[in-house]
Amino acid sequence: MNNLLVSSTSGFDTVDLKLRGFKVYEIDTAVSPVPSYSRRDFYKICLITGRTNIHFADKSVELDDTFLFFGNPHIPYSSEVLTPHQTGFACLFTEELLKANDRSEPLQQSPLFKVDGTPIFQLNEEQKERISGIYRQMLVEQQSDYVYKQDLIRSYLNVIIHEALRMQPTENFVKHKNASSRIASLFLDLLERQFPIESPQSPLRLKSAHEFADQLAIHVNHLNRAVKEVTGKPTSAHIAERIISEARALLQHTSWSVAEIAYSLGFEYPAYFTNYFKKITGTTPSAVRESSVVVAA
Question: Burial level of 201, CB count in 10 A (0-12/13-18/19+)?
Fold first, then answer.
């Protein structure tokens, strides 16, 4: 299996990508590997020609032609390259790049990036040539010294997005799991993608069933029923277990203060974190920190 959408290579600067907000590159699997990146940080739009099996969320789609794929960092996806040679283009970008102002609609609400959408569009020859031309313009602009090239790249991406909005997604090729399995799978993936916590300045974003339900654009009761049906445990239990697991790791393996750990896990006050931790574990964060210091000594 060759994972075209998520594979690895050395020398790809994700720090530079975060600073610029975008990275455009050409895909040719017979020549060079595809750059790696963190799906948690970046959106992606690919134009691919070649036989491919794409897995995203609970779905699988097999295509044998040219297609557009819209990757959302909040939805798991991967691909199998089924032919010896594939070509195309891709652009990685941050949500901030496309949000020209604070009133812009979040990308996750876009029909192309919604959790329950089908982000794959099969292209005819005319559409392929038109969108390939846009990617070539982005590649040229990426290397230029034009001071407003970020704005220009944003404009090119918006053109591709609007081209796709005119099309019909490739629904007829999709295979689905049952609804409860799909929802539970998306919830568990969203939960896990928040970890590990990298710094106190990047706190946990989703920490309640309601927040996860909002992210998945479903009612919280629907989420709770699906998770309980599939896993046998309530949504809140999964969240609590993962938060406590991360809290233990931070207490034992970092030098962060208890207050910093509390903030990083989404607690407004350290006392709230201490009470939460003690209620679930029967001990306090300070006791866990002290015991880890003794073991280390």
Answer: exposed
